[in-house]
Amino acid sequence: xxxxxxxxxxxxxxxxxxxxxxxxxxxxxxxxxxxxxxxxxxxxxxxxxxxxxxxxxxxxxxxxxxxxxxxxxxxxxxxxxxxxxxxxxxxxxxxxxxxxxxxxxxxxxxxxxxxxxxxxxxxxxx
Length: 126
Prior knowledge:
Shape: elongated
Strand content: under 5%
Distance between the termini: 41 Å
Largest sheet: none
Number of strands: 0
Number of helices: 5
Radius of gyration: 22 Å
Helix content: 55-70%
Order of helices and strands: HHHHH
């Protein structure tokens, strides 16, 4: 019950004309992880379930985290394997520049180097 009181006490800050009105979706996401939404369907659906769509999508996002981490690692690994055979003075591009700026080597044996290089392709390509 302590969580419920906490959420009820901070909710006015996230509602319309509240201090953090623009963060309401974030507040609602965290609240619905712990508690079911108070708004329910009035019409009778064919499939009855206590799990709402927002909770299902939260599970989808959580289940995607290992896939994303593997994509970071594998993309960085494949790129670092290809770049290890090249002369590092011939390399160009903003990703190469960022990796050299932070001192991250093109080492396919380093998990951190693979994750960092893969994250640059995965996140900053968008």
